[in-house]
Predict the 3D structure of the following.
Amino acid sequence: MKELFYEIVAEAPLAINERKPGGSQFQEGLGYIPGRVVRGALATQVLRGCKDPAHEHNHQECPQPALCRGLFGEEILFGDAHPLVQKREGPFVLPATAMSCKDNSGFRSKGHGVFDTLIDRACWELLQPAAMQYASRCPVCGGRTKGFSGVYSHCQIEEDGRQIDYYFSEDVSRELLTRVAINRRRGVAEDELLYAINTLSQFVVVERDDPYQQKSFDPARYVGSMRLADDSLETLIETELKRVTRMGGGSSRGLGRVGIHVIHAPVKPALEERLGCFNATLAERQQLMIRWRGDETPLPLPQYFAVTLQSDAILSADGWQPDMRLNEAMLWRACGETGQPPADLRLVRCYTISLTRGGFQAAWGLPKVTELAVQAGAVFLYQMEKAADWTTRLERLEEQGVGSRRAEGFGRVLVCDPFHYEAVKEAK
Ligand SMILES: [Zn+2]
Ligand SMILES: [Zn+2]
């Protein structure tokens, strides 16, 4: 499976909303470009030459049959595109277990730092000290903490001969544009037809070292990826992506003008390494807490792995019932296995938030069914006897994702996200 990364550069404000604008109600826009919107934009482009839009005859007459089959047969899995202000490693979705200071929230570049509580909380709760609850404190001021969500990027800078990791929040500001409908017969503003569109700004403010020009307005950039089952489609998709010029709603109002091009993949540690580091950090923290409790008897340690959602996921137990948990049976199937999951596999912790997700099917001109989803950033922690046996299965899980509507970007996962073990001993 080939993963193709692309960069979307905004040339106009983007209207990425769950519903079409209309009426007087205010609608909250999304802060990223969902995979389904990128898929819709590419499909609109390909459909112009397609001879079988209803997907009935396997696209035999089409100019690009392999591309049509991949796109409309849901073999190409699109991912969400998140903002990336400067050219750094990322963007990655922060896990739901990430916390920051209540008074001075933000990464070390701005606030008291962001740290992850998954490992510490799991260790604490598994040790079960009687009548004591896990509560994190800000490592800088000792104050209270709150959850910290969003996307982040990082880079390494050499200082005094050693490499230091710097983390940054990535965000694009919103703009509320007001439009008025014109009465065609009279040529003046129609009564009661004033409406507002929530858009993502076309520009981001970048701070520079230059004393004469400390701030500059750069076009907003979004980075996403798609996974191709058929590697030979790569060059074809690259040319088709370059032709896409519109994305999201309001194109007749001058919104949604974009340019897309293919970029290099961000660097990520191999799964085996992540699995090893995650378990090493967990064992180390557990030992620390055992010693702190004054209990010297070493416990036989099981092994763990964490699955973190990188996009919203639509999960269903028994194939139809909406669920907030990625239970053992669902995980086992998502790893490409059949039958019952092994007895030593156990889901020990989940941190999830539910929401509803819909969408608009541009080809049919109809809204999509609204479904209950688990928000991106959700974390599931599993326990098993030997983590090393799971490497190939978990690689497959990362490639394929979980739940339904995966071609539209739902259910992308990251196993043992480095943030879980890197942001434990100190806030980043
Ligand atoms: Zn076709
Ligand atoms: Zn603080």
